[in-house]
Amino acid sequence: MSTVTFHELKIPSANFTDILAGRKTHQLCLNHRQYSVGDVLILRELDENGEETAQEMNSLITHVEYGNATGLEDGWCVLSLANTTPLLGIRLIGYLRDRLKEHCDYTEAAYQIIRKAGSTDTQAKRTVQAGRCWVDEANHFLKKFSVGQ
Questions:
Q1: Which of 42, 47, 80, 119 has its CA 20 to 30 A from that of 61?
Q2: Are residues 94 and 29 in the same domain?
Q3: Are residues 98 and 75 in the same domain?
């Protein structure tokens, strides 16, 4: 029975974001931890000042290219990383953003009906305003990952 080893690594924000978005699929590092296929990296994001941001994610090691035999200096390795879960989350955020935008559009279209029924549209407008703020937040988030809007 094989066991999974977890390795905690602190990485700069730019690398963290690229791995999270699926743009960076490898990591060059010292092989002082004896990395193996199937191990999991617990990646912790560091800001520009080297402080932890409290953001973390897991990434599976799918391949290890060890130094010496491949042209890498002995003691170094290149880790191939698989990180598909965040991509599903990113797609979900895009989907939910689109549904929220549709809901806001439908609610705005109903303002006249609400007024004709003798009610005020104040609450509906407040709901739409809050919904549009969340749509903007989702757009801002998705821009970081080059996801279409």
A1: 47
A2: no
A3: no
Given a contact cutoff of 8 angstroms between Cβ atoms, the answer to whether 147 and 94 are in contact is yes
Angstrom distance (rounded) from CA 114 to CA 106: 12
- pLDDT, tens digit (0-9, with 9 covering 90-100), for 34-59: 899 989 898 999 999 999 999 988 89
Helix orientation angle between 13-21 and 85-109, rounded to the nearest 10 degrees? 80
pLDDT tens digits along 121-137: 999 999 999 999 999 99
Rounded Cα gap, residues 149 and 41, in angstroms: 31
Round the CA-based radius of gyration of the chain to a whole number and report it.
Answer: 23
Question: Which strands, in side-by-side order, build the sheet including 76-82?
Answer: 6-12, 40-46, 52-66, 76-82, 26-30
Residue 28's domain spans which residues?
Answer: 6-83
Does one domain contain both 12 and 46? Answer: yes
20: phi then psi, degrees, rounded to nearest 5 = -60, -40
